[in-house]
C-alpha cells in the first residue's frame, strides 16, 4: 500500500531531477508532472481501499490490480483529452462586472478536491506548439519517461509508446498553461514555486470571461457574471 501521500514513490525521482541539467522553469514543470501522475495513482488506490475494505489488500504492499476494462477506460480518457476543443467565446456585458463585497467570500461553497480528470479538463496547447518548443521538451522526454517508469507512475497503460509520449506532452502543456506561481507574501517579491488548481484555472485565462475573481485576505472565490440555470449547473 502507498504511504498516505505516496511521496516515497517519487522520492528517488525528485533527487535525480534536482541534478538534471535543465532550466529552473523546465525542472519545476517536470516536478509537477511527477506530482500529477503520482496523485492520480494515490487517489486511484484510495478510492479502491474505501470501496473494497479487504484486510488482505490493506496489509499488502502491492498496488491494486486494475481490471482491463478500467485500464481501457482510463487510457481512452487520456487519449480523448489530447483533442483540444474549440469553443466560441460568449459575449459578456462588461457593465455586469460589478464589485461584490469581498467579505462575503467566507459564505462561498468550497470546491470538491480535484481529480485527475479535472486536470485533464484543463486546456492543452500542445497541438499548437512551435517546432522550437516541441524540440526543447523532446530533449527532456526520455529522462522524464525513465523517471515515471522507474517510479511506476506512467499515466497510461497498455498503449503504444508514442501515444504515451503525446499524453505526457499534453500534461506538460496543461501545467505550463494553467499553473499558478506561489509568491512570498512579504519582502522582495519572488516566486517560490508553482501549483495547479484546476477549479481556479477554469476561470483564469479567458479573453471573454463569464465570471470574475473575488479576493479577501488570503482567500479567493469566483462569481458568475450572469445567472446560471439549474440545467447548466447539473
TrEMBL record:
Entry superkingdom:
Eukaryota
For this UniProt entry, which segments traverse the membrane? Answer: none
Q: Which residues form the SET domain?
A: 151-232
Spell out the InterPro entries in the cross-references: H3K4_H4K5_MeTrfase, SET_dom, SET_dom_sf
| CC per GO annotation | nucleus
Q: Which Gene3D superfamilies match?
A: SET domain
Identify the Pfam families for this entry. SET
Q: What is this protein called?
A: SET domain-containing protein
